[in-house]
Amino acid sequence: MIFCEEADTEETVTCLHMTFYHPCQDDKMMFRCLNFCEREQVRANEIATFGRDSTTCRYNFMDSRVSRIQFSLQFYRKLDTSEFCFEIKNMSKKTKLRVDHTELGYLNKMDLPWKCIICFGEYQILTEMQEGQSVDYYETYFHLAQMPLLQERCLPSLQPVPECGIFTSLSLSPDKSPKEIDENES
Predict the structure, then answer these.
(1) Residue 123 contacts by C-beta under 8 Å, 6 or more apart in sequence?
(2) Where's the FHA domain (predicted)?
(3) pTM of the model
(4) Could you tell me if 58 and 91 are in contact, meaning their C-beta atoms sit under 8 angstroms apart?
(5) Is 15-144 a CATH 3.30.420.40 domain?
């Protein structure tokens, strides 16, 4: 029992999960320099840069249309809290960066929401932050998407909708057919 009392508590680590998609990935392999499905430790004081320049950027895209440094992520702790966050900064003079519905021009920066989609050109990157307590480092964990990340998030239609937009009574099952209800009925 004394051993358990004296053992160090295991510290959890903040992990940034990033899922990458580009429509030409199968042909051009622009993500071939990223390590997928492996957690990678990054020192907390290091700024993680993404772009095509392998001498400057920690994470490289093999695409001449990507800026030398496309964007950067900086890990930080909010003032007077124990909450950790990431700040994203657009480093491209040519391409705007979109974080969900916010557009960032050159050198614009903002806090990265805990879950969001980053877009530039035809690139789509879903980011999700898993919270931790470590102040020395964080981890990145990359995934590759086979399908576009930006799609309408509507439920699939159970019945095909005709072009005229009107269902015939035959297309609805008897228990699913519309019923007229008086507004005074309960």
Answers:
(1) 20, 21, 22, 61, 66
(2) 49-121
(3) 0.75
(4) no
(5) no
What is the Cα 32 distance to its own chain's centre?
Answer: 19
C-alpha to C-alpha distance for 178 and 86, rounded to whole angstroms: 49
One DSSP character per residue, 72-126 reads: EEEEEE-TTSS-EEEEEEE--SS--EEETTEEE-TT-EEEPPSEEEEEETTEEEE
Residues 148-165: pLDDT tens digits? 998 644 434 444 445 555
The encoded tokens of residue 121 equal: 């050109």
Hey, where are the domains in the chain?
15-144
pLDDT in tens, 126-146: 999 999 988 999 999 999 999
CA distances from 176 to 160, 165, 179 (A): 15, 17, 9
